[in-house]
Amino acid sequence: MLAHIRATVSPDTEYRSRLLNELKSIHIVTPDDVKITAELDLMVANILAGNAVEGYALTITGKSGAGKTASLDRSIDAHPSFTPFEGKYNRLSLSLRATTPPSTTLKTLGKELLQRSGYDIALSNDEDENWRTLVRRMKIMQTKVLVLDEFQHVLDAPTSKKYMHLSNSIKNLTQTAGWPIWLIICGVPDIKDFISRDTNGQLDRRAPLVEFEGMKDVKEDWERVEDTIYELAESCKLELGSP
Length: 243
Hints:
It is built from 9 helices and 7 strands, in the order αααβαβββααβαβαβα. It is α/β, with parallel strands linked by helices and 243 residues long. The strands form 2 sheets. A 5-stranded parallel beta sheet has the order 4-5-6-1-7, with helices on both faces. It has a two-stranded antiparallel ribbon with strand order 2-3. The chain is globular.
């Protein structure tokens, strides 16, 4: 279909399409990118040490549209250790990444994660059994890091009982005997409550936080805006001038 559209549009429309593609491919590196990459490096070092009895959670927060998902995805995609590869019998990947479903429950999140892992066998009616299957899948895939975007949906569980069951199941992954899981949770600032509600202290031993803050009226942010405008203009082959 895209080939058909490309063959039928005007040269101006095709040109605009190429410009839009180039614009969307640009990522302006920010201090938050550097922080995320540093935390990924530290997480990989902890995993590589091989003697950890439990994982921990990296929390990334910011307002909607702050760019946290794009930065996290880019940082993971650019990190060589997170590149999936083909093993002897199946595909192996250090991380399993998913978007948390709205009004999520243990059942819906377990289903989403199993599907993202490539599990295409009928699921059990027992949601806890599905989570045990998920852990087995992660072992088979050699997955040690679970990445959950839009994590605020966990806080929207329909009842407090369902929330506690879901949150405890997620936290318990970090203490899986013989196969501890590291978490990366990403969402709006409310997700910091997930750590603060951890009354059993499962996640507070080391719970790094990367907060995406808005632009400030300071020289560093002025220069970042100026650099961004020039880079975007250059990609569109535009010349900037001043009145």
